[in-house]
Amino acid sequence: MARKADFWDFLFLLRPTLMMPVWMFLFYGYFHGMDGRILHPIFPKSWAFWCIFVALTAISGSAYVVNQIVDIETDRINKKLFLLPEGIIPVKAAWLVVVGLSIFGLVLGAFCGRLPFLLLLTIWIFGFLYSVRPFRFKGRPFIDLIWNALGYGLLTFALGFWAAKGSLAGFFRLSVPFMLAVGATYAETTIPDIPGDLRDSAYTTGVILKPFATALLALGLMAASFAISLIVRVFTVSIASGLSLPGFLWAAMTNDPEQIDMRSRVAFRLAGVFFALVIGIHCPIYIAIGIVVYFGLKRYYKTRFGLDYPSLRG
After folding, report:
1. Is the pLDDT of residue 77 over 80?
2. In a 10 Å sphere around its CB, with 0-12 CB exposed, 13-18 middle and 19+ buried, how is residue 308 labelled?
3. 157-165 and 16-33 are packed helices; what angle lies between their axes, rounded to 10 degrees?
4. Which tens digits make up the pLDDT trace of 274-313?
5. Where is pLDDT greater, at 38 or 111?
6. What angle is formed at CA 272 by the lines to CA 145 and CA 63, rounded to 5 degrees?
7. Closest CA to 61 of 119, 5, 127, 108
């Protein structure tokens, strides 16, 4: 019989691992909004940034809980994300979490300012449309990729940029290489997920294009991110995407199903590490947050489920 849910179960229901890329692009936006220079670390001291940080965390958490509610049967079959499939947290309680986080995040966003509120509301709508039928954009080819690129590379980046500058003047051209990098990384992640997505009737970009063409698309998007970052002088992306490119090239150099599956995993994981390290060098508190999240997850999953997670093995 499942143990009764406690505070930690509800906290980890929000998927802290998925929060890290959300926070990453928020920090990137803030850094570039501050006209940050390469190898010049900064610490966000603005109350607006931390207000947005908390509000965005709540909004993102609500989206991740909705995703788990919608996918509860699939997760039960695949024996993953145990909290809802095993009944540790009742679905009704999960919906209450969604409502509470949504209201809290949007109200706090309104206190931050009109523009942050509108951006947060848009992100909330994006999260809903991404998971819930009949929309379920996460299962629609190319829309899934565009949705992720806009959600992380544009909207989240814009929130951080506004927190630093108080306006969005000049932000769009800086966000373009980020959107391309997100699109590339997302496309690569769809390759290992193809078998599961097919069982779930989710026709993602990877499912439609097949592994090899998807790897080529991902390589092209990452190369475009690198090239455009040099043109618009967003050198943080130049470094991260430049370091990521060999992995994406390696993934696109084979048509063998097992090889491309393995190589794509290496490519998108390394890309995540490179982008995280670059912003961590410039905003060290991001690394500190990541360390807390990592060891918190390790302890929680070990004591709660006897699992070694997160793990470099997958």
Report:
1. no
2. exposed
3. 40
4. 999 999 999 999 999 999 999 999 999 999 888 888 765 5
5. 111
6. 55
7. 127
Q: What is the pLDDT averaged over residues 270-277?
A: 96
Contact 162, 193 (CB under 8 A): no
DSSP 149-161: IIIIIIIIHHHHH
Structure pTM?
A: 0.94
In the predicted model, what is the mean pLDDT of residues 64-89? 83
What pLDDT, in 10s, does the model give residues 14-45? 999 999 999 999 999 999 999 887 778 888 88
Q: What percent of the chain has pLDDT over 90?
A: 81
In angstroms, rounded to a whole number, what is the distance separating the alpha carbons of residues 312 and 253?
Answer: 23
* Dist CA 148 CA 131 (whole Å): 12
* Helix (H) / strand (E) containing 75: helix 72-78
Burial of 270 (0-12, 13-18, 19+ CB in 10 A): middle
**Closest CA relative to residue 214, chosen from 180, 182, 187, 192:** 187
Q: Is 73 helix (H, G, I), strand (E, B) or coil?
A: helix
**In degrees to the nearest 10, what's the CA dihedral of 178, 192, 195, 297?**
-90
DSSP codes, 6-36: -HHHHHHTT-HHHHHHHHHHHHHHHHHHTT-
Query: DSSP letter string over 233-302?
Result: T-HHHHHHHHHHHHHHHHHTT---HHHHHHHHHHHHHHHHHHHHHHHHHHSHHHHHHHHHHHHHHHHHHH
Report the length, in residues, of the chain: 314
pLDDT at position 1 is: 41
Instruction: Determine the angle formed by the axes of helices 171-189 and 16-33, rounding to 10 degrees.
Output: 160
DSSP for 35-56?
T--TT-------HHHHHHHHHH
